[in-house]
């Protein structure tokens, strides 16, 4: 059973457009992280959200943790080719970390 | 120098061979993890270790074993490799489970 569902699986959009990707679960997590992975490299942490309803911004990226701590979203404003990569969410519960399958994002110049 | 290193970076082997993947870290973290990544399946935890004397099975430990030789070293072994173990393998370290996980660059393993 996949506890963390990420959608969409794939997204290809033009440079300059806005986009939102989602990470959903029926389970409550104590915190949630978003990682970005580029080809040939390991995932790199973007953000950790801990409090229900929390919003964090990282330049053009906005992360939100759901009020019930079961879901999260990542919104990118004015996407750039450098945003291309695999975006993974990871939830923490009972001293364990669970990764979603990821959203593969491709920004076309 | 990278904080987390993995050797080898690429390996092609044959069914039935024993393979060892090695991971070293300079972060000083107690916790170390081994994951495998397959297209469409995401990252799945194989084994994790909270300190040298504490080894735990993850989601998909069958067919794998690990050794924590020191705080900085955590190796993954495939005793008798099979083709469905072809995957990208990542080592990671961290302080607490909710803290940042620092990943190595990965080992691409192909079992023929």
In words, what does this structure look like?
- By secondary structure, chain A is an all-beta fold.
- Chain A is 0% helix and 56% strand.
- Chain A has strands at 5-7, 10-14, 19-24, 31-37, 44-49, 55-58, 61-65, 71-76, 85-93, 96-99, 103-108.
- In chain A, the strands form 2 sheets. In chain A, strands 2, 4, 5, 9, 10 and 11 form a 6-stranded mixed β-sheet that branches. Chain A has a 5-stranded antiparallel β-sheet with strand order 1-3-8-7-6, with no helix packed on it.
- In chain A, a hairpin with a 2-residue loop joins strand 6 (55-58) and strand 7.
- Chain B contains no helices and 11 strands.
- Chain B has strands at 4-7, 10-13, 19-25, 31-38, 42-51, 54-57, 65-70, 73-78, 87-94, 102-103, 107-111.
- In chain B, a hairpin with a 2-residue loop joins strand 7 and strand 8.
- The radius of gyration of chain B is 13 Å and the shape is globular.
- The A-B interface holds A 9, 30-31, 33, 35, 40-45, 48, 50, 88, 90, 92, 95-97, 99-102 and B 4, 35, 40-45, 90, 92, 97-98, 100-101, 103-106.
Count of beta strands of chain A: 11
Shape descriptor of chain A: globular
Overall geometric form of chain B:
globular
The low-pLDDT segments of chain A are none
- What's the gyration radius of chain B in Å? 13 Å
Structural class of chain A, please? mainly beta
